[in-house]
Structures are given as C-alpha cells and as structure tokens.
Write a structure and sequence with these properties.
5-stranded antiparallel β-sheet; 10 helices
C-alpha cells in the first residue's frame, strides 16, 4: 500500500531482540483446533511460569495515568454485560519498567506510551468524536498527563528510554516518539524523535499485516502515519521473549494477530498486562458484581469475558486470555481476582450506570 513504508517481506530483514522463550510455542501449530490449543495454553503457561520466576525481578515498575475515555460496552464486556449504558469508561495507563542487564547496563522500557493527542485520529474514535457534542466530550474524556510529563516527574530523560512496547498497534501514532524521514503536514514539519534512542518492540506478524489491512482491522489502525517512520525504529520479535530479569513479552494472538502481553515478576508475584480484557474480574467473572457477567459466564460455560472490538480470531483470543490467567498470581488485596493489569482498565463513572468495576488495580508498583 502507498501509505505504508515497506512490504510484508521487508519486515523479515529487520533486527530483533530478547531471548526466545522455548516453553511457549505457537499454539496455532497444535493439531485438533481451538479446544486442544486451550489445553496447551494452560499446560505451557504453567511450565513457563515456573521458569520465569527464576529469572529475577526488574528494579522498578511505575504506573502513569494517561487518559480516561469512553468505550462501547458491547466491545469491552463482550456479550456478557446487561448494563443499559451504551458506553463505559476506560483509563489508558503507561507502565515504566527499569532493570539492569547482566552486563550492568541500565534499561528503561515504556509499556503503552500512547500519544493521546494523535491517537484521537484513529478512524473509529475520530468518527465517534465527530458525532459527539463538544460539551459532552469534555465530560467523558479526561487527560491526566502526557508521556513526557510523566518521564520528567520520574526523573527519566527522554534519551534514556531504550524500548517502547505496546500490546498491539491499534490507535498508535509513533511519529513524535521515533521521528520521520520526511515533512509531516499535520505536524508542521519533520519531527525529531522525542525518544531518540527508543526502539519499538513489536510482533513481526503484526508489523507485516499492517502493509495490507483487512476491513475488520481498518477502523483501529492508522497505517498512513507509518508512511515515513524509519523501519530501523522497530525491533520485531517472533513469539515470546525474555527482555530482562523478570520482564517478558508473551505472544497472545487473537485481539489482533500480533497481540502481545507484558509479564512481570515483582515483589507481589507475577503480573500480566494487556488489553485482552478491560477488568481483572473479566478473568474471574464468577466473582463479578457487574450486571450480567457472572450469569453469562455460568450459562455459557465461559471462564473469561473478552475485550472484543476487533474479532480477528476470537477463539485464539479466548485461549490467550486463559494463558494470561494461568500466568498471573492472585491479588494480595483480594485473592478472588488476579494480578492482571489491563492496559486500558474499566473505570467507574456516574454517566455509565451498571459499569462500575467490582475490583480495580488502578496501579502496578514495584521496587526491588
């Protein structure tokens, strides 16, 4: 496509990163369909967790709120909710993870550092904004702080950021983070990278798929913004990798083909973060007080409630959530719920009756 800077075959030549996790294999290669793959997800998840906790822990993990915004209830609580509210609220958060490599070099990873201002132009959200009166939009959207503002507060220089990681590239516009090779009319020039050393860690197959999006994918991506992004800004990975002590990226396909989850070993145990579900209770809906969730789970025999705005491969997403469920430890605040930290977490709002979460993490904090 003219709006994308390379073809799918070009992605093969880009460098990669991390130590491959052999315990977690491609579930798509498991014969017999989604049922046997679900059993394999549980088995492999348990095996990997035993290995992962021996790799150590990062130095610190810090949570940074970016924006709270509306999201369709029918997407976030797929088929399960009985709320009358057409929209619920989610809070997008960035995690800042720091560790030292075996050679003593310090590393900084930003997980979900969304450019909130440019993300508004994602086709779905852009159309939604055009139909929403400004006075209502101001009540529904709260911008908390920018990525650079959070870094300044934490005393992290932008040039000290090594890696940028998203669970997937829905809504993401990376131009201000990694720069471009040409003038950008909407940005008023050719932006110098605000995170000049950062490399974007992404699944190779998601990056390749963006060269020719399927109609089901198009509402959620901004492929035109990648037209002048230098390919060298990316570090594609294939499958699951260990990035540092207690820091892993696990491939969790389904929400998108190249979906990935951040897995962290902290002082409270293992945490998992992604947007596969929007609330911890979506992994244990039998304990949810959200209208409909416990009943739906019981009646249909489904143990998780998906975030399903893009139904690329629903059974694979279900299996990926079960993998995440296998990896995450119980919460120390309430062991009925797991240490799954949604990158976009359900947030109660008076405008959205029937969508107040039973349990929220709100923050993931760790210091060694």
């Amino acid at each position: 496509m003219a709006s994308f800077p390379w073809s799918a075959t070009d992605v093969v030549d880009l460098p990669t990163i991390g130590t491959r996790v052999d315990t977690l294999t491609d579930l798509g290669a498991v014969p017999g369909g989604p049922g046997p793959r679900l059993a394999a997800a549980r088995r492999q998840g348990a095996d990997f967790k035993r290995e992962f906790v021996t790799t150590g822990r990062p130095d610190s993990v810090t949570t940074c709120d970016l924006v709270t915004l509306p999201y369709p209830t029918r997407f976030g609580l797929f088929r399960a909710s009985r709320s009358v509210a057409p929209f619920l609220s989610i809070t997008n958060r960035m995690l800042v993870i720091r560790w030292h490599d075996t050679d003593g070099r310090s590393r900084v990873l930003l997980f979900e550092p969304s450019d909130v201002e440019l993300g508004k132009y994602t086709p779905y959200f852009d159309r939604l904004a055009q139909r929403t009166p400004d006075v209502l939009a101001r009540r529904m959207v709260t911008e908390h702080e920018t990525v650079l503002g959070h870094l300044a507060r934490l005393g992290i220089a932008p040039e000290d950021v090594d890696y940028v990681l998203f669970d997937h590239l829905h809504t993401q516009d990376l131009r201000r983070w990694v720069g471009t090779t040409a003038h950008q009319d909407d940005l008023g020039g050719r932006p110098e990278p605000l995170l000049p050393r950062a490399k974007v860690v992404v699944q190779r197959d998601e990056l390749a798929a963006m060269a020719e999006l399927h109609p089901l994918q198009r509402p959620w991506y901004q492929p035109g913004t990648y037209r002048d992004v230098p390919p060298g800004a990316f570090l594609p990975i294939e499958g699951s990798v260990l990035l540092g002590p207690g820091v892993a990226v696990v491939k969790t396909p389904g929400h998108v083909f190249g979906n990935q989850s951040l897995v962290l070993h902290t002082s409270t145990g293992v945490w998992v973060s992604s947007e596969n579900v929007i609330a911890a209770e979506c992994l244990t809906p039998e304990h949810s007080r959200l209208p409909g969730l416990a009943r739906w789970s019981r009646e249909w025999g489904q143990e998780v409630v998906l975030n399903a705005n893009s139904l690329e491969t629903t059974a694979d997403q279900y299996n990926s959530v079960v993998l995440e469920k296998t990896l995450a430890d119980p919460s120390q605040d309430d062991p009925r719920f797991l240490q799954f930290f949604p990158s976009s977490e359900l947030t109660g709002a008076w405008t959205n009756p029937g969508t107040n979460p039973t349990f929220s993490h709100r923050t993931l904090t760790h210091t060694s």
